[in-house]
Design a protein that fits this description.
alpha/beta, Rossmann fold, 2 domains, seven-stranded mixed β-sheet, 6 helices, 7 strands
Length: 240
């Protein structure tokens, strides 16, 4: 079965889960912008602390893509992500997944993570390269390139250990081709005609073939970026 364009979320969950599994037991981890805390189950060997502003309500807006329901559960810290009431260097790991596009000032959040991480601590982050309006009204940026992280993490005293694309250009196009039916129904009250659905299947087959030929097109576009970086003691240490 051709599943081109359906691996955005599964790829991300798999990548994050594997990085969390490699962390030594007992480390103190901050799940920043934890939302419904989907990664808490992968942190049972860690000292897990969840944080979120806790204000998203899927019924508050009909704009864009909204969740059918939303349950934060018990948050350890409810606050602004750029001003977390914890001591400097008090965490071994900061996890932040698919949050930056929902922040008015994502760079301020990165500065806060740099403050909270001990030297040698890890930042594990994911962010979309491009995204449709979702979780409105808290959607301020459509996405982030690899160059955003390369520029700002270095300036904040991080060394990037890993930065990989989630998917590639052809997979992103396929994702949006698959979304046409639901978007057309919502915004035009129409649906693709039978021959148009056949044409979409042909396009999806083509995109699947092209995606399998290589991942180089990720430099043009992808679902998003997966980043793992280490907090270093100083810029001098980064240059060493």
């Amino acid at each position: 079965m051709n599943r081109i364009g359906t691996r955005n979320t599964p790829n991300r969950i798999d990548w994050v889960a594997k990085r969390l599994a490699k962390l030594p037991a007992g480390l103190r981890i901050l799940d920043a912008g934890a939302g419904e805390q989907p990664y808490a189950k992968f942190c049972e060997h860690l000292d897990y602390v969840s944080q979120d502003f806790g204000k998203y309500d899927p019924l508050a807006s009909r704009d864009g893509l909204q969740m059918p329901a939303w349950h934060y559960g018990r948050l350890d810290i409810a606050c602004d992500i750029t001003n977390i009431p914890q001591s400097d260097a008090s965490f071994d790991v900061v996890l932040c997944t698919e949050v930056f596009e929902h922040l008015v000032d994502p760079l301020a959040a990165l500065r806060e993570f740099a403050r909270l991480l001990r030297p040698g601590g890890q930042l594990i982050a994911t962010a979309p390269f491009g995204s449709l309006t979702h979780l409105a009204p808290y959607h301020y940026c459509t996405g982030f390139s690899r160059y955003y992280f390369e520029e700002h993490l270095a300036s904040l005293g991080f060394a990037i250990d890993e930065m990989i694309p989630n998917g590639n250009y052809f997979e992103v196009v396929a994702q949006e081709v698959r979304r046409i039916k639901s978007v057309a129904k919502r915004y035009t009250h129409c649906k693709p005609r039978p021959w148009e659905r056949l044409a979409m299947n042909v396009v999806l087959r083509m995109l699947g073939r092209l995606a399998r030929l290589g991942n180089e097109s990720s430099e043009l576009g992808c679902f998003g970026w997966h980043v793992r970086a280490t907090r270093i003691e100083s810029k001098a240490a980064a240059a060493a």
